[in-house]
Specification:
The chain starts with a strand and ends with a helix. Helix 2 runs parallel beside helix 3 and helix 10 packs across helix 11. It is elongated, with a radius of gyration of 19 Å. By secondary structure, the protein is of the alpha/beta class. It has 11 helices and 6 strands. The protein has a 6-stranded parallel β-sheet with strand order 2-1-3-4-5-6, with helices on both faces. The chain has 2 domains: 134 residues, Response regulator (Rossmann fold); 60 residues, Orthogonal Bundle (Arc Repressor Mutant, subunit A), CATH 1.10.10.10.
């Protein structure tokens, strides 16, 4: 059975090259392509591909935003992030958003196909050059006990004032600790920090 794929990449030369290379693969059918995160979400809604391959840095909705939206709206459709950058923050945020893999743009076509096949099989595929960093990146003990307690309380809806009272801290200390948690988890806000911690088994 052919794997139906869409390619979302804002650089037309890279996008056309990817479409051409993937179209040569006997197991893959490229059913659409786009140039922004919003286009990617719209294409998924219209075409219902098996796998979406999305660049990270795009205007009008980046790839991580698009993955999060696709995962929320169409959880059975697999997403792979495509990027030039081997950045830990991108990898963390992408996996937390629901991506099935992280593919670098210098990856050989054969490995891109492997990533697509792995995603379809509900497996995670990470660029080989980044795999050694995964165990360190997702260690639960990156957060201390008090930070994990904060996240657990916040997950239940506690405010900063309520968290401070329960942990016997000043409210200002709680705000400072949120800054540390956001940095450690590469999160932008409380909601994202809770989602990342939950997905990584920290809470």
């Amino acid at each position: 059975m052919m794997i139906r794929v869409i390619v979302v990449e804002d650089q037309w030369l890279v996008r056309d090259a990817l479409v051409a290379l993937l179209s040569l693969q006997p197991s893959i059918e490229v059913v659409g392509s786009g140039a922004s995160g919003k286009e990617g979400v719209a294409l998924v809604s219209e075409l219902k591909p098996d796998v979406a391959l999305l660049d990270i840095q795009m205007a009008d909705g980046d790839g991580i935003w698009a993955v999060r939206e696709i995962h929320r709206l169409f959880p059975s459709i697999r997403c792979l992030l495509l990027t030039t950058f081997a950045k830990d923050d991108y990898l963390r945020q992408g996996l937390a958003a629901g991506a099935s893999g992280y593919v670098l743009k210098d990856t050989p076509t054969k490995e891109v196909v492997q990533a697509i096949e792995a995603a379809l099989a509900n497996q995670t595929w990470i660029a080989p050059s980044m795999q050694s960093r995964l165990s360190e990146m997702f260690r639960p003990d990156r957060l201390n006990d008090r930070e994990r307690n904060m996240l657990q309380l916040a997950e239940k809806g506690a405010t900063n004032r309520e968290i401070a009272a329960q942990l016997f801290l000043a409210e200002g200390s709680v705000k400072n600790m949120w800054t540390e948690i956001f940095s450690k988890l590469s999160a932008k806000n409380r909601v994202e920090a809770i989602a990342i911690a939950r997905n990584q088994g920290i809470i």
